[in-house]
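**User:** My hope is that you can spare some time for a protein that puzzles me. I have put the entry right below:
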Amino acid sequence: MSFFNQNNIDDDDQVYLPVKSIGTQLPDQTLSEEVEDKIRAKGYKNRFHEASKILVPLRVIAFILIFISLSYLVITQLRYIFFSTSYFELKEFEVSGNSTLNKDYIIKKSGIAPAQHIFSLDCEEVKQRLLNEPLIKDASVELQGLNTLKINITERRPFIYAKFGVAFYEVSEDGVIINTEGMGEKDLPIITGLKLQDATLGTSIAHNDDFYTAKSWIKTLDEKILKQISEINFSKCQNPYIIMLTGEKIFPRNAEDFKNRYIFLRALLDNLRKNNVEPFYLDMRAMNDIVIRPKKISQTNSENRGQTTGG
């Protein structure tokens, strides 16, 4: 066995100590069970921690998959409820404001399909389809509740007959041609001379100057006067003429003047008939006079040719 003195060793000297001296036995280094249990527990904890790091994204993925599956199921069921059942289908139609057009015709013009779902309903589009009908001036469309569609319309009324050739076009006050199949059977003022070569059902002549003038005449004259007029001709818009029901042709100064002197004109026409004078025309364009051009005069009244009377 070797011995050395520690005091004889310098700091710079390297010392090599034997791990085990010859003939010397180290004590047994066996761990206790308690220590081994702690080591095992720590190992389990480390492995669980590592496993947890892997399980976190797996849990997220699983949650996403479950969420997608449930969402698909919900959407499928909602789609079935909304589109495959009758709960959201139109079942009733309320139509108001109509007098000429019947309810079935209005629903047909609306273009709504039978049992149409409310989710495919476009109220503005339905309104525009209704306005394509010339007799409908305005319309409102709204959904009431889940199953009832309310339609309210404003109809156009015939205002005049615009006679063109042998055709009698019914024209509303706003200038829309609402009927072309009549034969003049309605009690409406008849206007002739309007330029309607390209006019068809639904055409608007509101911007036609002749129509504007004719409309002004009709609104100026009283209904009693209009009932005694066969037609008003506007072939020359600034110089229209009137045909009375009794056949006389009148050149008026303007609508207001004709209205003011109408009573005198009627008295004059009655007097001419009593005297067997059939006028070719009467000219009222002078301020205070009415010029009469007779068409046929009896011998006793030959001196009345070209007569002028005040009025």
